[in-house]
């Protein structure tokens, strides 16, 4: 029970990696707040966790669009009113788009930066402010990507947003550690989630491949021998939220089966 009686907020927590982390936090004793833009997915996730034995009184769902600062503030206030504060934040909400450099639209660029960078930063700022006011420190985990470690021809904007997440993780960590708030990140590699069906279809379109081929190839290219699974990120997220990582600050942990070494 490494997170016993901690209060954890997971944005984008209703599916994929976010849901896997939410589940693991509950199993480690935390009260878990699933913050997601999709109310239906929130309801499904809460139902699934309760069916698995998680107590309803230790779960909370909040519809949250991280592009809306008023919604962010309302989320922080609502969680504080329900549970008394926030000890852990996982900034997981993000979107992905793909197109050749010459076809990137302003709308796609703005949407990715608004959610992946601006939304992440102002969610962090609001939660960190509440942590400072409470005076008990905390842990913040920002989800980046191996795409933030290197450029990719068809994913220029997404790569840039995830590189920005790594940079913000470092800067925010240095700015908040004096308050006992540890900020770190996780950089997943290729992860087998429902979103990869959309990604595969985009690769099929731009690289003239059969559907399913790109997904198969990227999985085979991982040194570990397979794509990541959402549950592969639960343990690292528990570690970075717990006292076991108390002296780890401003780091972004690669969890990618050996795809990237740094």
UniProtKB/TrEMBL annotation:
SUPFAM superfamilies: NAD(P)-binding Rossmann-fold domains. InterPro entries: NAD(P)-bd_dom_sf (IPR036291), SDR_fam (IPR002347). GO terms for biological process: fatty acid biosynthetic process. Keywords: Oxidoreductase. It is an enzyme of class 1 (oxidoreductase). Its EC number is 1.1.99.21. It comes from the Bacteria. GO terms for molecular function: D-sorbitol dehydrogenase (acceptor) activity; oxidoreductase activity, acting on the CH-OH group of donors, NAD or NADP as acceptor; quinone binding. Pfam families: adh_short_C2. Belongs to the short-chain dehydrogenases/reductases (SDR) family. This is D-sorbitol dehydrogenase (Acceptor). The lineage of its organism: Bacteria, Pseudomonadati, Pseudomonadota, Gammaproteobacteria, Oceanospirillales.
């Amino acid at each position: 029970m490494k997170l016993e009686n901690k209060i954890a907020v997971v944005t984008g927590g209703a599916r994929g990696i976010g849901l896997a982390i939410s589940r693991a936090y509950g199993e480690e004793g935390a009260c878990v707040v699933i913050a997601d833009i999709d109310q239906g997915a929130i309801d499904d996730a809460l139902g699934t966790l309760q069916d698995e034995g998680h107590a309803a009184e230790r779960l909370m769902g909040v519809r949250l669009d991280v592009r809306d600062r008023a919604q962010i503030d309302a989320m922080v206030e609502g969680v504080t009113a329900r549970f008394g504060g926030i000890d852990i934040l996982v900034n997981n909400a993000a979107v992905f788009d793909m197109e050749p450099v010459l076809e990137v639209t302003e709308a796609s660029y703005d949407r990715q930066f608004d959610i992946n960078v601006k939304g992440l930063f102002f969610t962090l700022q609001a939660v960190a402010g509440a942590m400072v006011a409470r005076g008990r420190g905390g842990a913040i985990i920002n989800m980046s990507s191996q795409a933030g470690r290197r450029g990719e021809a068809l994913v220029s904007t997404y790569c840039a947003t995830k590189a920005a997440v790594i940079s913000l993780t470092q800067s925010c960590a240095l700015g908040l550690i004096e308050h006992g708030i540890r900020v770190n990140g996780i950089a997943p590699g290729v992860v087998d989630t429902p979103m990869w069906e959309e990604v595969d279809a985009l690769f099929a379109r731009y690289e003239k491949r059969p559907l399913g081929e790109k997904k198969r190839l990227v999985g085979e290219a991982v040194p570990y021998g397979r794509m990541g699974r959402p549950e592969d990120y639960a343990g690292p997220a528990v570690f970075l939220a717990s006292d076991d990582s108390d002296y780890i600050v401003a780091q972004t942990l690669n969890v990618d089966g050996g795809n990237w070494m740094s």
